[in-house]
């Protein structure tokens, strides 16, 4: 996908993700960019914390695409829900999402969202991690069922979309960047792009 033609004064920008949420977020910066799918094994490593997993995968996604497009600035990102040190990923289906929300009911979950910018040609590589603390309400099974059938958030880490109906499941959100919880922390992304030489806004 190409959103527009990049001015010659700045390098091409590629988002190493097929997530529509990340694509929509990056469009807010009004920069032309392409989208490429990163081929990365997302299996956690033994002993890896959720924060470490998010950072490693964000870098790996950017690197995987950067190898094929060495002149471009490649943005990689990953999000892992952290429940008392245990990684919670995308549920993929109703049953897994139901179990995730049961476990998170009444709990505080840290959503670890990492973003990395990589350019092979200039040897630029930086990564930032943004942690968002989310307090879930006490949820009963009927509430969980109604929510899942209404929103079907099976492609979202932790099974709750705060930008949609998932906000009703929560007591509070504590963060430094509201876009981080959706999947791409734009404050950190803009900071990394400026560090790599991109003019913003």
TrEMBL record:
GO cellular component entries: cytoplasm
Group of enzyme by EC: hydrolase
Cofactor: a divalent metal cation
Subcellular location field: Cytoplasm
Keyword Cytoplasm: yes
Catalytic activity, EC: 3.6.1.-
Pfam family, one: Maf
Assigned keywords, A-Z: Cytoplasm, Hydrolase, Nucleotide metabolism
Listed GO biological process terms: nucleotide metabolic process
The reaction(s) this protein catalyses: N(7)-methyl-GTP + H2O = N(7)-methyl-GMP + diphosphate + H(+)
CDD domains per UniProt: Maf
Active site: 78 (proton acceptor)
Site note Important for substrate specificity, residues: 21, 79, 163
InterPro entries linked to this entry: ITPase-like_fam, Maf-like
Entry GO MF terms: nucleoside triphosphate diphosphatase activity
Keyword Hydrolase: yes
HAMAP family (alphabetical): Maf (MF_00528)
Protein role: Nucleoside triphosphate pyrophosphatase that hydrolyzes 7-methyl-GTP (m(7)GTP). May have a dual role in cell division arrest and in preventing the incorporation of modified nucleotides into cellular nucleic acids.
NCBIfam families associated with the record: maf (TIGR00172)
Family as reported in the entry's similarity comment: Belongs to the Maf family. YceF subfamily.
Name of the protein in its database record: 7-methyl-GTP pyrophosphatase
Organism: Saezia sanguinis
Lineage: Bacteria, Pseudomonadati, Pseudomonadota, Betaproteobacteria, Burkholderiales
């Amino acid at each position: 996908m190409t959103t527009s033609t990049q001015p010659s004064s700045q390098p091409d920008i590629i988002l190493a993700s097929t997530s529509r949420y990340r694509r929509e977020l990056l469009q807010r910066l009004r920069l032309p960019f392409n989208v490429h799918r990163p081929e990365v094994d997302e299996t956690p490593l033994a002993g890896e914390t959720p924060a470490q997993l998010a950072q490693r995968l964000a870098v790996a996604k950017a690197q995987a695409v950067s190898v094929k497009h060495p002149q471009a600035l490649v943005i990689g990102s990953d999000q892992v829900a952290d429940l008392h040190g245990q990684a919670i990923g995308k549920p993929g289906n109703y049953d897994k999402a139901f179990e995730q929300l049961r476990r998170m009911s009444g709990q505080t979950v840290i959503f670890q969202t990492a973003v990395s910018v990589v350019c092979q040609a200039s040897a630029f590589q930086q990564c930032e991690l943004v942690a968002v603390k989310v307090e879930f309400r006490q949820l009963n099974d009927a509430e969980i069922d109604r929510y899942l059938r209404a929103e079907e958030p099976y492609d979202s880490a932790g099974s709750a979309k705060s930008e949609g109906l998932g906000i009703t499941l929560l007591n509070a959100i504590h963060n430094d960047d509201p876009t981080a919880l959706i999947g791409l922390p734009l404050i950190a992304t803009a900071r990394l792009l400026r560090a790599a030489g991109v003019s913003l806004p």
